[in-house]
UniProtKB/TrEMBL annotation, chains A, B:
Listed name of the protein: 2-keto-3-deoxy-galactonokinase
MF-aspect GO terms: 2-dehydro-3-deoxygalactonokinase activity
Keyword Kinase belongs to the record: yes
Keywords linked to the UniProt accession: Kinase, Transferase
Organism: Roseivivax isoporae LMG 25204
Source organism phylogeny: Bacteria, Pseudomonadati, Pseudomonadota, Alphaproteobacteria, Rhodobacterales
GO BP, one annotated term: D-galactonate catabolic process
Keyword Phosphoprotein appears in the UniProt entry: no
Amino acid sequence: MDWVAADWGTSNLRLWLMDDAGRPERRIESDQGMAAIVREDYEPTLLGLLRRDLPEDRTVPVLVCGMAGSRQGWVEAPYARVPCVPPSADAAVRVETRSSRVAVRILPGISQDDPTDVMRGEETQIAGVLQERPGFDGVICLPGTHTKWVHVSAGEIVSFRTYMTGELFALLRERSVLRHSLGGETWDREAFLVAVDRALSHPATVAGDLFALRAESLLRGLGPETAQSRLSGLLVGIELAAARPYWLGQQVAIVGETALADAYRAALGAQGLEASVLGAEAMTLAGLTAAWRHLKETAQ
Amino acid sequence: MDWVAADWGTSNLRLWLMDDAGRPERRIESDQGMAAIVREDYEPTLLGLLRRDLPEDRTVPVLVCGMAGSRQGWVEAPYARVPCVPPSADAAVRVETRSSRVAVRILPGISQDDPTDVMRGEETQIAGVLQERPGFDGVICLPGTHTKWVHVSAGEIVSFRTYMTGELFALLRERSVLRHSLGGETWDREAFLVAVDRALSHPATVAGDLFALRAESLLRGLGPETAQSRLSGLLVGIELAAARPYWLGQQVAIVGETALADAYRAALGAQGLEASVLGAEAMTLAGLTAAWRHLKETAQ
């Protein structure tokens, strides 16, 4: 093992033990995300997960992206500000550890003044896209709990915007009165696309269409999977309406897990836009690897 | 005590012991709403709360409105369908009770086919408004967890629409990432009105403005009370955009608790519309009393 790549987010921590050719030898996943631990837990958590793998005789570099660098995380890695290249390892914050078996660096997130916005973690996936597709010029959509739309040009992040679409969907599905009317695993593509189109054309109607899911389930036997797909479509639709300046007439790359990326791809496809899809985890790893290479080159 | 008026909702139960002149002698409030109890609990809950007050020698009529009449409630009181007058006591469902000390009737809710919608409890407040303002012709707005906009004409409920504004606000304030950035009791009227105007003019921007509350709190020290007022304004604003056909150029009466009714009144006022405000509890009681009188007249 040459070094360790780490994506330390709010809910999860993923580690990859990287060989000296830049390939992952092993992948470790844990639920010890920022929300589950306090500051003092970071080092023991990391050492505990790497226990079997750390050599006795040398210090292993660990390069971290994500919420571990936030004020509530391990050590704050102050934001870089757009327009900027995705922060590389020389912008990373060195963490003082008690153990000398690891040398930890946390990559900074990115902020934007107007409209005020922040990201932590996605900048590393964007670096991964630029690695995978050198010279990419266009828009990167990163759907998730807090979906990001990012304008990238000449290797720089120019501007971006965050939409709470995934979190809203989860809250409505699990905590609202709609939870009685939603469920299942099957995606009703048609219901999704009709709802996207409706919300894109008339964003305000989303406000009334939400409770209609409950009413139609009570009075007309609307199925839970159709209702759920329609809810997803309404929320993605109003997001697409708000993010229209980002995607309209642009080259769009979606970075996300398969099902979610497919949904966004279908929604954009219905608007006549053919987006490409890149895997979220692959882009994180590519971004961390690029930052690592830069660090090694700078050190030599 | 002549009879008992009851508003049995999802979260709360309120009882009023009414004298034979139609005035409340005593008011009892309990948290034993539909969500807290099962079917078998309704009768013991009611008898327990009325224990001190029920006479030994006769049966006391109890007239109930609200979610107790839903399928998951005490006994289902099937919906009346618009257009219709607010259901009176002769449309109420008689509940079989073990005890002969109470004679319970539950008022039905109202449904609408297109757009599909339902209400339970608000129809009684609407009956109250028609009692308080005979001949009222216009629109009644009932803000709350599930805000209703209702078109009333010639004594009938013509159409209505439900918006989950209150529930969305509570979910975002208490359960989302925004909870770290919101709080306090003071209403920032200016921040509220600016947000209403923005969401009314450009409903889709709400999708991006939500996370901006978090980002501005992190980067610019946006205060929790201003952030909370702005969130409220964004959600009320998109509701007003969707409900525009209801209020534009109409006579509007708001039925709600003071603070919430004031917020809606201010939002509509900024659009040049002067709405009147009626107390929510007073309208519930007026509606139950009207239904009760009708029942007595019919019985004679």
